[in-house]
Specification:
The protein is an alpha+beta fold. Helix content is 36%, strand content 19%. A hairpin with a 5-residue loop joins strand 12 and strand 13 (347-358).
Length: 706
């Protein structure tokens, strides 16, 4: 398949294979960037990878992975600092890469808010600084705490270090009683050059780029080292506030400026996509002469009341987008093709390259997607790269724009070695020797060995302990792989019997590098801490095909208790009847996703493994939203027809915020049907079932003032 075009014609297998590769690459890149300040991908590549992931998830929502990058923000905070829980989450931004993406951003905003294209809608546009996010908390005008973004919810306490920055005021006048100022710590290019020269002179570490230098300097355990580094700070946002700063984004930024913060002078008001893109071009032309690194332009809806209505997705605000600068190309030699086996048995070819520097990033691996892609053909058998196949020894062009993970975009046949032979894709699993089958219409070949395949078993365990799942301190991918290879952990339930099996002597663990009494007991305590865990996390951790983190939380919120889910899955086993209708009626859960869930609970061996795991756990109940004053709390609501006063997305978000469940289909459990013009079969079914039906005005009157 070709990734230079859109995803038209993609099969589930195509999408699943690529989503797996994207998830692994982005998880590592996140940790490298946020956790250790040593990025292996630059921002352009990273963000375009996320764009590709988001496009695939939009087209294939039933394939959203449990460890999807779309629900990840940053990386877990370092153990070297105390932790700070953000009062208001520090989220990332969705991305735009083409002018059409900016136009679509404006169109989405208007559609969500019900604003026509002829009505005015203002945005701010400002450079996106390539640095480290920082939140500064002021109480009664005094700086009391500074924290990095961390994973978006919990960051690192770097208060002492932040106090050393000249751009960070210690005391504010006429500020709200509680004010969290957010912005970016960065290093000017001239200061970076001088710092590296000084580092070289004393034989110390040389930094790769200003962003790394800034992040590493702010995250020093010795604040005197931070003080010696030329760090700067631009303020551009806020978190918790006791009183609003202004009515608009621009007004709030001006207010921060009046408090003594440095704000970016290139921030401008724009009246729509044309002006936004024009400002982007202007900033792009000045990029080389700014004196500090930027990687794009951020657009935000200016009216803060509209920002409030738009709200947030799981990890990004709806009212903002980052328009990123493009990435680059390079040529290198293909040294080999390796086959990796993923969690679902997919055989994924990976190109091993002679390392090449592409825009400051050394690339040594690239995806080859599947056997068709290697042969020069797309999902429908059409030619890609002019039908040129890829062979070991070829001179290949690497495309490092994040549209996909680094990939081979082209082949120079004039440099192909005479002895180069066409690549033969394996028909057996390289890990376990089982047949690798390719079903009709499926672009991916899969190992049929199931859990006898060590690669699949290990990948499932890695997924189980991943951050969005059980996230057990001290038990990461490396440790579960070691424990599996040693025969200690074959399935998730085995993790929770480790202490009983090893006892307090811990002799087996103590004989392993890096383990002793203290570290082993610490691990066992961390495992015990996760015996009580959220419903959504458990479901997500099972790694059921098509059931990602967002879907797991939707399903958990609907059924409330693990017992209710098990009962429903047993009743839905025939893929028909009331229980099945209820499952596919959950807004956001389709038939493919539902079928995968029912199948997992219906397979004897898989169900037994799930039951063995749950026997060790206390799965927390998901309680309804606390909306005691809401007339729709606990009720199931269905929206149908055309809504004229608000968008469907806004109506759904509002209903859920009031404690209602929003379903996509009408059943005997439906309490309210909100029917706009054009309501069809759902309205008829509701009438037949005697379900309360109202128009949009009636719905708004019902929830008026809430």
């Amino acid at each position: 398949m070709s990734f230079d075009t859109d995803i038209t014609g993609f099969t589930d297998t195509d999408a699943k294979s690529e989503l797996g590769q994207l998830s692994a690459l982005l998880a590592k890149a996140n940790m490298d960037y946020h956790g250790s300040d040593t990025p292996t991908l630059d921002d352009a590549e990273f963000d375009r990878l996320k764009q590709r992931n988001a496009a695939l998830e939009t087209a294939f929502p039933h394939l959203v992975r449990a460890d999807s990058p779309s629900v990840q923000v940053g990386a877990a905070p370092s153990d070297g600092f105390s932790k700070v829980t953000h009062a208001v989450a520090m989220l990332s931004l969705s991305n735009a890469f083409e002018d059409t993406d900016v136009e679509e951003f404006d169109a989405r905003i208007r559609k969500y808010l019900g604003i026509s294209s002829s009505e005015p809608l203002a945005f701010t546009a400002e450079p996106k600084i390539d640095g480290l996010s920082l939140s500064l908390r002021y109480e009664n005008g005094t700086l009391v705490q500074a924290a990095t973004r961390g994973d978006g919810s919990v960051g690192e306490n770097v208060t002492g270090n932040a106090r050393t920055l000249s751009d960070v005021p210690h005391v504010l006048e006429n500020a709200p009683d509680v004010l969290e100022v957010r912005g970016e710590v960065y290093m000017a290019q001239s200061d970076f050059d001088a710092l590296n020269a000084a580092q070289i002179a004393k034989g110390a570490k040389v930094f790769a780029n200003p962003r790394n230098a800034a992040a590493g300097s702010l995250r020093q355990l010795d604040s005197e080292i931070t003080r010696s580094r030329p760090l700067r700070f631009f303020a551009y946002a806020w978190g918790e506030l006791s009183t609003p700063l202004a009515d608009t984004q621009k007004g709030a930024i001006d207010r921060l400026d009046s408090f003594g913060f440095s704000t970016n002078p290139l921030t401008a008001l724009c009246d729509g996509p044309t002006a936004m893109i024009a400002h982007y071009r202007q900033i792009e032309q000045q990029r080389a002469s700014l004196g500090y690194d930027i990687d794009g332009v951020v657009y935000k809806v200016d009216d803060l009341a509209l920002q409030g209505r738009l709200g947030f997705r799981s990890t990004t605000p709806r009212w903002a987008v980052a328009h990123k600068f493009p990435a680059e190309l390079a040529w290198t030699r293909l040294d080999g093709i390796d086959i990796q086996v993923g969690r679902t048995g997919a055989l994924s070819p990976v190109a091993r390259l002679q390392p090449v520097n592409v825009g400051g990033v050394v690339v040594s691996n690239a995806t080859l997607h599947n056997e068709d892609y290697i042969s020069g053909h797309g999902a429908k058998g059409e030619e890609i790269r002019g039908g040129r196949d890829v062979r070991v020894g070829d001179w290949v062009q690497i495309y490092r724009a994040g549209d996909v993970i680094p990939k081979i975009a082209d082949v120079d046949l004039s440099k192909r070695p005479d002895d180069a032979v066409a690549f033969q894709f394996p028909s057996v699993c390289p890990e376990c020797g089982s047949l690798a089958a390719r079903e009709a219409g499926d672009a991916v070949r899969r190992c049929t060995g199931g859990m006898i395949c060590p690669a699949q078993a290990i990948e499932n365990l890695k997924h189980f302990v991943s951050r969005g799942a059980f996230d057990i301190d001290g038990l990461g991918a490396k440790q579960v792989e070691q424990f599996h290879n040693d025969g200690w952990v074959a399935e998730p339930a085995d993790i929770f019997t480790l202490r009983d099996r090893f006892g307090q002597g811990l002799q087996q663990l103590k004989n392993r590098d890096g383990w002793g009494d203290k570290s082993a007991n610490k691990l066992f305590d961390a495992i015990d801490d996760k015996r009580k865990i959220g419903f959504g996390r458990v479901l997500f951790a099972l790694g059921i095909r098509h059931i990602g983190e967002a879907a797991s939380n939707l399903i958990a919120a609907h059924y409330g208790t693990w017992h209710s889910l098990e009962t429903a899955m047993d009743l839905a086993a025939m893929l028909e009847g009331e229980a099945w209708d209820e499952l596919i009626g959950i807004d956001g859960v389709g038939s493919v996703m539902a079928g995968s869930l029912v199948h997992a609970f219906g397979q004897n061996s898989e169900r037994a493994a799930i039951d063995r795991l749950v026997a060790h756990l206390e799965v927390a109940e998901v309680k309804p939203v606390d909306a005691s004053d809401s007339p729709v709390a606990g009720k199931t609501v269905v929206f149908t027809g055309t809504l004229e006063l608000m968008s469907r997305a806004e109506a759904k978000a509002k209903a859920e915020s009031l404690g209602a469940k929003v379903s996509g289909s009408v059943s005997a459990k439906t309490d309210i049907l909100v029917a706009g013009p054009g309501a069809g079969s759902k309205a008829k079914k509701a009438a037949d079932l005697g379900i309360k039906t109202m128009d949009e005005a009636g719905w708004l009157d019902l929830i008026k003032g809430l």
